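[retry 2/3] DUF72 domain-containing protein: previous attempt timed out, resubmitting with same input.
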Amino acid sequence: MRSGVQALHVGCAMWSLKSWPFSRPPGEKLRAYAGWCNAVEGNTTFYATPARQTVTTWAEQTAPDFRLIPKIPKRITHELRMQGAEEELRSFLDAIEPLGPRAAALWIQLPGSFGPADTAVLSRFLRSLPAHFRYAVEVRHPDFFADPRGLERVLAEHGAEWVPFDTVAFFDSPPTSDAERDAWLKKPRMPRRDTALTDRPILRYLGRDDPARTVAGWQPWVATVAGWLREGRSPTVFVHTPDNADAPELARRFHAEVRAQVPELPPLPDPAPLPVPDEPLTLF
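[retry 2/3] DUF72 domain-containing protein: success.
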């Protein structure tokens, strides 16, 4: 572990949403987002391996220290369950190569049916992966949380991180909006887990559509992340809400609350200014 306070990266589940306070042409949306947050979840790669040229444009729109953590495609993790997936894996690794250091880790999100009895499969898969990447694993089977020791041993053996998805605050009380009701049916009920296995912990946090409730629910994480930074770790935190309308502002607020506890933490850059409209705004 390196001494001294490292960077805190914060971001959202995506880099474009119509309601967000910045807008750019389709080929510039990631650049606009990167003016607000310094990390983003690579959810798009979970659904399909992108074209290499598409990934090249992502790299061109972000600084080398921006963290885009691509998910290994569900074809590999969910359909093939990490077995007999050599061709698909080669295609994926070739596609994301232009990201360079921006690919701070490769994200292995596993289905809820993947339990402790399958841990040996994960170990073999991690052993087969190129050593120059970091890896982060997200599990959803409840037995892993009841007794985490077996999974922790496997992850430690391969230098991989365990990605918690904290939904405790979200499920604390019944939904109050359409977006919350939809998320209530789709999101997993996950416990809070705050043990970092590496110097690059990654956290997903799901709040509520009410920003005040989201902020109240993340207070334990402010202290945890501040502690990680004091230990010399460099965390990445992703803030979700059911509608994600305020997610960029909330991610920046989380960073500010951590910095209030760790003043030596470098601040995020000021958000890029909003574009000036070509014509004056009118009421009609």
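[retry 2/3] DUF72 domain-containing protein: Strands lie at 9-12, 39-42, 67-70, 106-109, 135-138, 161-162, 165-166, 202-206, 236-240.
[retry 2/3] clearing retry counter.
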